Amino acid sequence: MTQFINKFKIPTLLGLGIIFLGLASGLYLVLREQTFLSQAAPNFTPRNITIANIAEDSVVISWQTSSAASSFVTFGQSNPGEQTALDDRDTNVPKSRLTHYVTLKNLLPKTNYQFKIISGKFTSDIAKFETATPLTNQTGLTPIIGSVLDGDSPLRDGIVYLSIPEAAAQSALVKEGGNFLIPLSRIRKADLSDTYQLTEGEVVKLTINSDKGNASMLFTLKASSLPLPPIKLGQNVDLTTTEETLITTNDLDKYDLNSDGKTNAADNVIILQNLGKNPKNTRADINEDAVVDQKDLDLMSQKLKELGSQ
């Protein structure tokens, strides 16, 4: 009788074991697939949200996303759904990108607004800002002009932020040619109460964010509007500790033969390496007379003396 019972018991236990292993394997595969999908899912969550360029009638909201997202901002006084604003680079339809830059226009002075960021399938919580009162005077300083390089090529897209202690944040888009311009004439105090009185020689910081990388530059303000030296992604430049001279864009193009943002002895070497007709580096022909000779060396020597770089 016992043998008869065991005859059926052993296969039953074996069957239960097989069923248990099957369930465990299935559960493992499901969990692994869920983990994979979770890791592969795009992340549209806005980060580094910045409110800048606050004026009496406009404000700029910018942010980044880890995955390319089609984004826009909804805003209003009573609720954040009254109006919609697209990225400054979009026309009728939002385009997918990693850096986002939206200007809200036609706002009322000294007024509280609410807004939401719609980023792909993600909707942010309600955030708020207040516009400023109209300014009665301006700083009188000219804009900050510069350019950003991605390797040796102009950066095609990005955002530049200007940080000054006790002043409201300023920002600008990097244009397709890699250039940017940040006006200073209407910059305000951090509390927006009045114009921030910039002074020549004040140390300020630029931060560049893009989908290709980031960069930063510390420098002192100048009364003139000479462009800053080009900054490359990946660099953190401190011009306050060097004696680099800011020169015009034309001079950079003409005398900065190796495109490193400086004119120095290294550029003079390039001329020496290309003496004669049909130079390998045509930029060495500074006076553009179809031959690299002593005339080009003299021009470079004169420029180096002006800059104190010899």
UniProtKB/TrEMBL annotation:
It comes from the Bacteria. Residues 45-142 form the Fibronectin type-III domain. InterPro entries: Dockerin_dom_sf (IPR036439), FN3_dom (IPR003961), PAPs_N (IPR015914), Purple_acid_Pase-like_N (IPR008963). Keywords: Membrane, Transmembrane, Transmembrane helix. SUPFAM superfamilies: Purple acid phosphatase, N-terminal domain, Type I dockerin domain. The chain crosses the membrane at residues 12-31. One of its GO terms (biological process) is polysaccharide catabolic process. One of its GO terms (molecular function) is metal ion binding. Pfam families: Pur_ac_phosph_N. This is Fibronectin type-III domain-containing protein. It comes from Candidatus Daviesbacteria bacterium RIFCSPHIGHO2_01_FULL_40_11.
